[in-house]
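Reply to dn_fold:

You asked what the input looked like. This is it:
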Amino acid sequence: MLATKSINEVKEVLRHMVSFCLGARINSPPVFLWGSTGIGKSDIVKQICEEEGIDFEDLRLTLLDPVDLRGLPRFDGGTVSWSPPCFLPQSGKGILFLDELNLAPHSVQASAYQLILDRRVGEYVLPDGWMVVAAGNKSTDRAYTVPMPAPLANRFIHWEVETNLDDWKKWAYANQIDPRIIGFLNFKPDLLFRFDPVKMEHAFPTPRSWERVSEILAIGLDSKTDVAGAIGVGAATEFLAYLRATERLPDARMILNGEDLVPESPDLLYSLLSALVYYAREDGGKTARVIEYACLLPEEFSVLLVRDAIRAELPVKETQEFVYFAEKHQDLIL
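and this is what came back:
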């Protein structure tokens, strides 16, 4: 059994390893992230590099031949030396990301042994300040994989990455994902990721494919075939039925401006809460109103609205309204 972490837990641990090792000027041990397709393994590594201000080098070993890592030979005074390939880091600090490592043939995986463990291959040496992170899909998800030899596997710290709705919502609010999708997944959290390894489906719901749905909606495509092309027929049927139901939704911007309309239907409430957070992020002056409105809702939805506002990094805790809310809900961990 592998150690299991959520996306956010992986991100925080990797961030700590990067910042600690760079600060202490020591080299970090290599890490392998296992997880189902589309859950965001590569995204979190890239995000860490962007947030820490370091380089990100994405190297796909599936595109290389075994000799490519060593580089090209050159004659020098009667002896042969090797010119390292330009795609390997030469300076600076960052993460060398070996995505889909377990898709590469055994011969290419073997050529990476020395790079991963000893931070060198042939005459090339990985500069200090660079961390090696690899990722791959699980064979149990019917992904094509090449079994990793034990000597290579033993070079890594291994974590299995699991999808998590709370982590995904924090990302979704920050990346302008359509609020109707966030509301729907609050209502149907099991559809954030659903994959049946027995069925040979081309499209199925994952965090990545929901991002595609948001892009589809943004360009005005909302037919069943359009959406099903990203998340499959079953999930698309449920999502579009939800969209039709939310046509009766009150305008979230009117509520942020002072209207006290509270829908009775749970599906409408889920959608309304995500819309409130979405539009409150656009208008930073409406944060206090979010908490004020939360106090009008049934407790389950009241707490959900406040938690989502915090995940979306609205400064709710700085408002007087939050002080009142926290006193009323002292037993909750927000």
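The chain has a mean pLDDT of 88.
Hope that clears it up.
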